[in-house]
Write a structure and sequence with these properties.
Structural class: mainly alpha
Oligomer: single chain
Order of helices and strands: HHHHHHHHHHHHHH
CATH superfamily: MetI-like
Largest sheet: none
Number of domains: 1
Helix content: over 70%
Shape: globular
Distance between the termini: 26 Å
Mean pLDDT: 79
């Protein structure tokens, strides 16, 4: 009996997640859907394939992926060691520093954007690719720090001390001890950071070079102009695919991590 409520909750969560996708799937994989038909008049991959075969949309997807990868790598390079220090080292003012680290995620986004805009204009890099990457890193960095902090609070630094005693260098310690110990949390943090960068619209609209578009900045005008439902649905499916992938992979990793911890105990 104890497992029944858990299964019902899981089924309810799956239904709530998939329910909004049903109309999108209908529009994306059909050429027409007329009222009052409950189901599309026909099913076809024509619209979705037309988006994937269009050189412009292919370039937009590539640019979105490349931008999110760069932002994730830079955020990880900075946030990994910051989260490690905050999670493993006790020092005065640590809580205050944690608040400052996550401040961009808590403060008004518009205020930060205008402040960054002023700085980038003074530096002469406004409306350039570096300004876009740096602006996204400012907003993505707090997320990767917040996700890695609990991981490092449960991290045992004695292994690193033992490695230092054996004469193992810092780089080898990082690659063969630290990263393997936190790989599940690290993977989830990277995926969620990628997802945050992928879904950002306002920062790209503020700082992107002229002519640079992402899936998010391409999708919003389509909705505002009330474009073709099939095209909007196809672009929306492409937009939410990373979120579904992150949800699936992170759930699998967390489940495996829980099983491993249970087995160790």
């Amino acid at each position: 009996m104890k497992g029944i409520p858990r299964i019902l909750i899981l089924i309810g969560m799956v239904i709530l997640i998939l329910l909004p996708l049903i109309p999108l799937m209908g529009w994306a994989f059909s050429t027409s859907w007329t009222w009052p038909n409950l189901f599309p008049d026909n099913f076809s991959t024509e619209r979705l394939m037309s988006v994937l075969n269009d050189p412009y949309y292919v370039q937009v997807i590539k640019d979105s992926i490349f931008l999110s990868l760069i932002v994730t790598i830079i955020s990880l390079s900075v946030g990994f060691f910051a989260a490690k220090a905050l999670g493993t080292v006790e020092f005065k003012g640590r809580r205050t520093l944690e608040i400052f680290m996550i401040l961009p995620a808590l403060a008004s986004g518009i205020t930060i954007l205008f402040g960054l805009r002023y700085v980038f204009i003074r530096l002469g890099i406004y409306l350039t690719y570096p300004s876009l990457v740096m602006a996204e890193v400012v907003f993505c960095l707090p997320y990767i720090v917040m996700l890695l902090l609990p991981v490092f609070r449960n991290y045992d630094t004695d292994y690193e001390a033992q490695a230092a005693t054996l004469g193992i260098g810092k780089l080898n310690t990082l690659l063969h001890i630290t990263i393997p110990a936190v790989k599940s949390g690290l993977a989830v943090a990277c995926m969620y950071t990628f997802m945050v960068s992928w879904s950002i619209y306002l920062i790209v609209a503020f700082f992107a070079p002229i002519g640079f578009d992402t899936v998010a900045t391409e999708l919003v005008p389509l909705i505002q102009m009330r474009g073709s439902n099939n095209l909007i649905a196809a672009m929306t499916i492409l937009f939410i695919l990373p979120s579904l992938f992150v949800f699936f992979i992170s759930s699998k990793m967390l489940t495996e991590s829980t099983k491993n911890n249970g087995g160790n105990t």
